[in-house]
Specification:
Elements lengths: L7 H14 L7 E7 L6 H9 L6 E7 L1 H6 L2 H8 L12 H5 L3 E4 L4 H8 L6 H11 L3 E5 L8 H5 L7 H17 L1 E4 L13 E3 L1 H9 L4 E4 L3 E3 L1 H9 L3 E4 L1
Parallel strand pairs: 1-2, 1-3, 3-4, 4-5, 6-8, 7-9
């Protein structure tokens, strides 16, 4: 292979091949980072993403079009020291089935609003909601949504009314109630062994409502008998790995 340094993408490919040959047993946890634009915390979010310990996890990232309109994919790859990139329009339940953790490094106001309003038309939101409903871990840096975060003061954006700050804080509490883990940018990403995800009847109903007619069931998932019956009733194809 010569003296050239292996790319992150090549490392990921080799990992997948080795995992397959060892009976599909994962050697590392897989993190999928969803990058959005924001008024606050872009730099700290990208820095956090860049500093994740690659010895512990495989990091893949995807960016919305608003991000790539400001920064090319080549610039993002250079900034993150990571070329394991996936176009956001290719994100699907199959990608999610091979992901252990969803990471949101820049929790923008618009993303928060769309998550709380269940706007599944936005690809990132659809993926996040599906992750939460199927028991996946979702982690977000709270710098962009915490009205009392020191970063706002540094940006001179701490002059808003108490009412505005209260609204932002309440949104943050709602995200926590939904199951999203909010952390500070100075915290280390804690990756723990994820318990098996249970796919139940309610999950299948959600897939049907979102027009998901095919879903991949990985070895990390457990499907209840009622869920199987409901999938058959609603003509949802289940693909078992």
């Amino acid at each position: 292979m010569g003296s050239e340094k292996q790319s992150v993408l090549l490392e990921h490919t080799l990992h997948e091949l080795l995992a397959h040959r060892s009976g599909n047993k994962k050697l590392k946890m897989t993190v999928l980072a969803l990058i959005t634009t924001h008024l606050i915390g872009m730099d700290s979010g990208l820095s956090f993403l860049r500093e994740i310990d690659r010895e512990e996890v495989i990091v893949r990232f995807s960016a919305e079009e608003e991000v790539t309109a400001q920064m090319s994919i080549e610039e993002l790859i250079k900034t993150l020291h990571n070329d394991n990139w996936m176009p956001h329009h290719l994100l699907s339940e199959k990608v999610l089935s091979h992901t252990d953790v969803i990471l949101i490094p820049n929790l923008s106001f618009s993303l928060v609003a769309d998550i709380l309003s269940f706007n599944e038309q936005r690809i990132f939101v659809r993926l996040i909601l599906t992750a939460l409903l199927t028991g996946k871990t979702v982690i977000a840096l709270k710098a962009g949504t915490d009205p009392y975060h020191p970063l706002l003061r540094l940006k001179g954006m701490d002059k808003g009314s108490n009412g505005l700050k209260r609204m932002l804080y309440n949104q943050m509490l709602q995200l926590k109630d939904m199951g999203i883990n909010l952390i500070d940018e100075n915290e280390k990403l804690s990756i723990k062994k994820i318990k098996k995800t249970v796919i139940n009847e309610e999950t299948i109903r959600y897939f049907h409502q979102q027009n998901i007619n095919r879903f991949v069931i990985s070895k990390d998932m457990i499907m209840t008998p009622l869920a199987r019956d409901k999938a058959k009733e609603l003509n949802i194809t289940l693909v078992f790995e």
